[in-house]
Amino acid sequence: MKIGLIGFGKAGKAVANVILGSKDFSLEWVLKNKPESGFLTAKEALNIEADDESVIYSRSEIDIDRFFEMHPVDLIVDFSDAESILQYGSSAARHGVKIISAISHYQDDQITFLKELAKTTTVFWSPNITLGVNYLLFAASLLKNIAPGVDIELIEEHFKAKSGVSGTAVRIAETLDLESESINSVRAGGIVGKHEVIFGFPYQTVRLVHESISREAFGSGALFVAENIKDKKEGFYNFEDILKPYFFDQASSLS
Amino acid sequence: MKIGLIGFGKAGKAVANVILGSKDFSLEWVLKNKPESGFLTAKEALNIEADDESVIYSRSEIDIDRFFEMHPVDLIVDFSDAESILQYGSSAARHGVKIISAISHYQDDQITFLKELAKTTTVFWSPNITLGVNYLLFAASLLKNIAPGVDIELIEEHFKAKSGVSGTAVRIAETLDLESESINSVRAGGIVGKHEVIFGFPYQTVRLVHESISREAFGSGALFVAENIKDKKEGFYNFEDILKPYFFDQASSLS
Amino acid sequence: MKIGLIGFGKAGKAVANVILGSKDFSLEWVLKNKPESGFLTAKEALNIEADDESVIYSRSEIDIDRFFEMHPVDLIVDFSDAESILQYGSSAARHGVKIISAISHYQDDQITFLKELAKTTTVFWSPNITLGVNYLLFAASLLKNIAPGVDIELIEEHFKAKSGVSGTAVRIAETLDLESESINSVRAGGIVGKHEVIFGFPYQTVRLVHESISREAFGSGALFVAENIKDKKEGFYNFEDILKPYFFDQASSLS
Amino acid sequence: MKIGLIGFGKAGKAVANVILGSKDFSLEWVLKNKPESGFLTAKEALNIEADDESVIYSRSEIDIDRFFEMHPVDLIVDFSDAESILQYGSSAARHGVKIISAISHYQDDQITFLKELAKTTTVFWSPNITLGVNYLLFAASLLKNIAPGVDIELIEEHFKAKSGVSGTAVRIAETLDLESESINSVRAGGIVGKHEVIFGFPYQTVRLVHESISREAFGSGALFVAENIKDKKEGFYNFEDILKPYFFDQASSLS
């Protein structure tokens, strides 16, 4: 499966790292804003041995339509910025390229555009594309569904410099309908990222904990999604759509 | 909903405690092996103020069929021993009384008998009747289903004197297909009971943790089951059957 | 070592429980405010088999001076209220009885009185008499001493109904000089009590965690103190005074 | 304070990273086995902006005595291999350069040599040079000293591929006199490194937890040691010698 990566910042590099290390996927090219100084390919820039081409192109220097013809891929993984979908979206859809976007925030008109593209190709969007966090959301809302009256609190821990409540914590709180008093933010040293949902029952406690080790988790998440949407038809998908089939399998296998 | 409780050992007393404290359920009577010295009712024995009758009877002194006529209940909760189903089962079924059994181990012929009763009335059996542990099993096997290759390890912690691997840990290991090397048993001081399933991904870790606070969790679990089987027809049910509908609700609510 | 216990509320009963179960200490009597209805001894009231006399007396019905003559003890353990020291203090000091007080708060004049008593007998006071919490305070302030610039956060978890920040958390925060923003209070279900001090370094994290299982920890703490002050002369002691010698032993044994 | 670094493997690079980022220390040079291909300085190799010279030299190409004259430093930090002390040790001692060695294992004769050098200069050796792990050892053995009968168990978690019990776990077990049954090794995914010492008391549990975030912790540890030995006379020191003064400060500040 041939992948084109948009964006080569910290997250983008970590994602390239994972794709380059995967046997089932090939990183054909990377499209970035500014030309990479000194490196022609992602594998050079990241010092990884791989067969993937992984040539780095600059967004400002290409004609996108011609680019897709010259450098065909099955799938685009987008870790750049909200605007870039406007540049590559229509061309990608026209060439039948599936799109996986991990952009944190889109404007309403950009979401409308994504949905428009989804009439022609497969479009997936998740603001947090790690498997662990999405599973946590799923499993936590299941338990709340089973026990609506249970006390729920959230502890999120990150490095000292991180300001504000983490985006993931906000999403968990929204999903579980938590008041802001129930979100406890710990900022200390170099903690990469930890989210712990505490379900307090009168005589027992259940904790769901997600710990981030590195940004490469975004890469694993993107490939997990790629694997799961490769046979999907055009349409607009999110992470729940990907997880739900496992859910039903699970439920049936237990019967 | 009128409940009759079979068994008044440590677990049985904790269960009585929870039923007596509940508004929606009434503890009509307790059936125990030996007569309780000095106390006529469970509420006296446990020093709880409640309207429930909760009269304590001795199994050896009653005619079970006549007993069900004189002291009708909707539901039996059984925390006694594997044999007692043979005493009360047929009478209960004949009188349309639902049965919730929390017996740890049944012989094969006893299970056959349970299934026979299930042709006439609603029979539920779970060797560990806490909501938390059953949810953990469910949620853990879901994640394994999603990520079959993930590394899974189990840590179970209990008080120093507990010998052998905990029954719950064995059940988790069976459900997740873990080797015995992946079960880590910690025995220290007075730890009531903790089970932690660790899912190790390359760039992130997910932990599902259950901590027991007290035996009353069995009571909450029994009442949760009671609430969920009250409208169920005759048949043989386990905890997964109870959780599954929440699961499907959940899955549909996310679409 | 003969012990007299003042106070027979929830904490007092838990302490009696531990003393009755100990070989090295004997519970001679319990002094409580209201007469215990129905029970003459603590061992009856708690349903424990023990050789200890453990007779329950009512404070209002005795002449305290005569009481100490008739029922001599080596040590008083006080889990009652701040006022009771005024009743028994002078008599105890006169009879050479050591005093261990676990009263949460004393008025200034009561502390002055304690120090006055300490000129004649051994007086120990700690508002939280568990070994674990006092060790935590000690070990945490040591690490802060070693690494003054480290980020410190505190998470304290208790049952839903507990209002306000826990007294132990306040004490930890004072000892470590934490701002109130660094105290995270989780209230959920029936959590007995957990305190976690997080030391965040740039490239590593250290966590000191104390989990309460039951109030009996107060009893163990009282006996630990009793063991450690039995050879101490008159004077006013706190928990640090008890721990410090182990500290120096430790430091020397490592050299 | 001018530092020379011996060794430029994974750990050595992480240490260089920390020294280059520090204001109080200057990385004068790095001595490595093989010449670094393409990079003349550590700051180039690690892509860090810094004023430090940090020139990379190859061990095979220099005359060590002349090298110390031409490139004077106050301190050597050694993250290379057990043999290299034989090359640079005598010269360093002759030039009054202090030595901090973080080599995991030395042969007996190498340790004898270190002690010989310690007659002339300040020599520090610790097989695990992180502050967190050494604090953990210290704090854990203190608690064991206070409560000799407490149940102690150890859980160590590392990435799947790590074989055998971790060296740190072995050291903790030796220090606390634990049987091998009490060491629980979890291997899952990409866990960087976690050590948890559990102290189980009858009614409470104390946990001391160390979590590694990255190898840079070795660098922080080395600089912590450098800061603490800079005024020390000749002699052979270990991490306990460094921590002990804080300990005594601590104990006195509490009196």
Automatic annotation (TrEMBL), chains A, B, C, D:
Q: How is this protein named in the record?
A: 4-hydroxy-tetrahydrodipicolinate reductase
Q: Which pathway does UniProt place it in?
A: Amino-acid biosynthesis; L-lysine biosynthesis via DAP pathway; (S)-tetrahydrodipicolinate from L-aspartate: step 4/4
Write down the top EC class of this protein: oxidoreductase
- Tell me the ranges covered by the Dihydrodipicolinate reductase C-terminal domain, including all copies: 133-243
Q: What is its EC number?
A: 1.17.1.8
Organism listed in the record: Chryseobacterium terrae
Q: Which reaction does it catalyse?
A: (S)-2,3,4,5-tetrahydrodipicolinate + NAD(+) + H2O = (2S,4S)-4-hydroxy-2,3,4,5-tetrahydrodipicolinate + NADH + H(+); (S)-2,3,4,5-tetrahydrodipicolinate + NADP(+) + H2O = (2S,4S)-4-hydroxy-2,3,4,5-tetrahydrodipicolinate + NADPH + H(+)
Q: Which InterPro entries match?
A: DapB_C, DapB_N, DHDPR_bac, NAD(P)-bd_dom_sf
Question: Which keywords, in A-to-Z order, does the entry hold?
Answer: Amino-acid biosynthesis, Diaminopimelate biosynthesis, Lysine biosynthesis, NAD, NADP, Oxidoreductase
Q: Of which family is this protein a member?
A: Belongs to the DapB family.
Name all Dihydrodipicolinate reductase N-terminal domain ranges. 1-128
